Amino acid sequence: MSKGIWGLLLGLTSAFVAVTADAAKDAQHTVERIERGNLVLEDLPPVPDEIAERTYRYQQTRSAVLAGWLGRAEDGLLISTRFGDTAQVHRVARPEGMRSQLTFFAEPVSSALPSPDGRSFLFTKDSGGDEFYQIHHFDLSTGDYKLVSDGRSRNTDMLWSNKGDVFAYSTTRRNGRDTDVVIGHLDGAPLQRVSQREGAWAPLDFSPDDRRLLLLHYISINQSELYIADLSKIDEEGLPELTRFHETAEPVSFTNARFSRDGRGVYTVSDEASDFQRLRYEKLDGSAARVLTDKVEWDVEGLEISRRGSYLAYIVNADGISELRVMNLKTGKLVPVPKLPIGVVRGLSFDAKGKQLAFSLNSARSPTDVFSFEIGSKALKRWTRSETGGLDASRFIEPELVHFNSFDDLRVPAFYYRGVGEGPRPVLIQIHGGPEAQALPTFNPLIEFYARELGISVLVPNVRGSSGYGKRYLELDNGRKREDSVRDIGALLDWIARQPELDARRVVVMGGSYGGYMTLASMTHFNDRLRGGIDIVGISNFVSFLTNTQDYRRDLRRAEYGDESDPEMRSFLESISPLTNAARITRPMFIVQGANDPRVPRSEAEQMVKTIRANNGGAVWYLMAKDEGHGFAKKANRDVYNNAVVMFLKQVLVDVDKYEVLVEPAPAP
Fold first, then answer.
1. C-alpha distances in angstroms, 239 versus 39, 197, 203, 234, 487?
2. Cα separation of 258 and 313, whole Å?
3. Are 630 and 40 spatial neighbours (Cβ–Cβ below 8 Å)?
4. CA 110, CA 458: separation in Å to the nearest integer?
5. Reduced to 3 states, what is the DSSP secondary structure of residue 360?
6. Which of 133, 185, 239, 379 has the largest count of CB atoms under 10 Å?
7. How far apart, in whole angstroms, are the C-alpha atoms of residue 432 and residue 413?
8. Residues 433 and 485 sit within 8 Å (Cβ to Cβ)
9. What is the pLDDT of residues 164-189, one digit of tens each?
10. How far apart are CA 407 and CA 492, in angstroms?
11. Alpha-carbon distances of 301 from 87, 313, 319, rounded to whole Å
12. Does the structure show a pLDDT above 70 at 514?
């Protein structure tokens, strides 16, 4: 048995005991519970040396994410990367230069934002994954840092003023439910309140003269509003004058906005009069409104404007593939950009002079790294080259984009990683969270391990309700249409059965957060067609979830799932919840949870574990981390989790002849 973290799994017996279906009804299974450090493990089997050794290199991969320029381009960049157990802030002085670590904490640093002059930066971190982020200020000249938020509330969306003397951010400090916008001062002066209304509010941009602040009022994925706060006009309550910008008759979703650098107008990204998010410009008085990407039939993302206002950069999400574009704002024409590998671009940042654009790039064969180029040049500079555990990432399996028709002939996209090996391959269906998120063809060493080392083919679908395919597609799972997305998984199972290279008798479903709900729901609907399920921080009962999720999230989630305080909706939500239908699950399950999860509380996992075990002695592995939240952010915890997933997949999908399971194999469809 391996030492270190693998030793946490010593002495545990297999959950998949050899019992018949009839005997299981009367069996009183004794749960094998071990607490080691911050981990609680129930019924997980020991991890053999061979598994730990095979997965080790795949778990040593790293990534580097752009935080921004440090003032002038010659001062270098701030990035986030992990050299120990958690991601921390580093400085890189030149392309492919040494990474100099600046922050050293047991908890990961979740975000960082350099000041306009490059002499300092703001950063956020939470405690044990509770997502109550606190803002700190780091002085690069001294290496000292200090807390600048209240130490209790949730604080996000940091934004420096153009002068760099103040910063805006969102906070729940007033009542723990609504997110207000405030302006903080480094000299310790009292906070300046900007918005103090119900709902979720965030700062987007200071005007060039710092006298106005552009705000987003987020109502739901389908609706948001823009406001301009005039910081020079303060009412008797001490709040600035708020004016609605671009009021619309129908609900519109704004995803981004920036002031023009002359201060006379605003560039926005919204789905107004379109199925997709488009780039628009409009003057503050409502004149000169025009669409700048009217010929783009995909979502626009990542709006950024150079400080001098000469260039505007944005990303087109073309069927999950990023297309980076830069517009000359004087001519309105696109300028040449370097040819990028097929992948996903995030985090656009112009340097102070507006001559260089930096960004993060991820592809199926390369972890996230930081790149830049000079505007007008096609030469790409690489700032970081992240390690891949000694693996040749250029040989990683690239996914194919496939489509399948669902029950109502909706065309659903999925990324398909073909497993290595002869004969029909077992299948893992991996479902993203959100639900309004999008699975992308990004670097994933664990999928590579599943496909290459275990011979498992992996399908990653974007079921209805996913973003990136237009607002009509996004709304197809709303309200009482919730289970239509689950029916998409049924259609995918039908598609798998028609592929001669796939084994429809050996399929496992897996997902996190909303994907965890989809996993549990798929198990209740298609139990006889699945070999098992892996649920990570998933919703098991919509009513208890909405009751117990953090106050600042409840109304936002009600907008997506429905209001459980309405008797009819409550009854519907109860009826479709996996917990209500848990008796249908007879296949093995692996459930994973963070104790401090503010989104999907720990109770969601534990009530599902208890119910499945009570039903016919159902087999469940359960892994809980006391120092994690909505997912595992610490590498040591992730390593244990990843190895347990490999063990589950080997027993349920791969080495099926070596293990007896609770039920007979799934029948052929």
1. 47, 11, 15, 5, 49
2. 12
3. no
4. 29
5. strand
6. 133
7. 13
8. no
9. 999 999 999 999 999 999 999 988 88
10. 10
11. 25, 10, 13
12. yes
What share of the chain in percent tops pLDDT 90?
A: 72
CB 256 within 8 A of CB 293: no
d(CA 581, CA 589) in angstroms, rounded, equals 15
Q: What are phi and psi of 17, to 5 degrees?
A: -75, 155
Fill in the amino acid letter for 26: D
Which amino acid would we find at residue 470?
A: G
Quick one: tokens of 562? 């429905």
Coil/strand/helix, residue 392: coil
- Amino acid at site 257: A
Instruction: State the Cα–Cα distance between residues 111 and 122, nearest whole angstrom.
Output: 8
Separation between Cα atoms, residue 459 and residue 437, nearest integer Å: 16
β-strands 192-195, 109-114 pairing: unpaired
At position 574, the amino acid (one-letter code) is E
pLDDT of 529-576, one tens digit each? Answer: 999 999 999 999 989 988 888 887 887 788 778 788 889 989 999 999
Token pair 């996914």: residue? 399
- Phi-psi label, residue 298: left if phi above 0, alpha if psi -120 to 50, beta otherwise: beta
Cβ-contact 244, 225 below 8 angstroms: yes
Q: Which of 226, 210, 230 is nearest to 218 (CA)?
A: 226
The 10s digit of each residue's pLDDT in 2-21 is 333 333 333 333 334 333 34
Domains of the chain, earliest start first: 4-59+391-654 (3.40.50.1820), 149-255 (2.120.10.30)
The answer, as to whether pTM is greater than 0.85, is: yes
Judge whether residue 578 has pLDDT over 80: yes
Structure tokens at 596: 């401090």
Give the C-alpha separation, 170 to 174, whole Å: 11
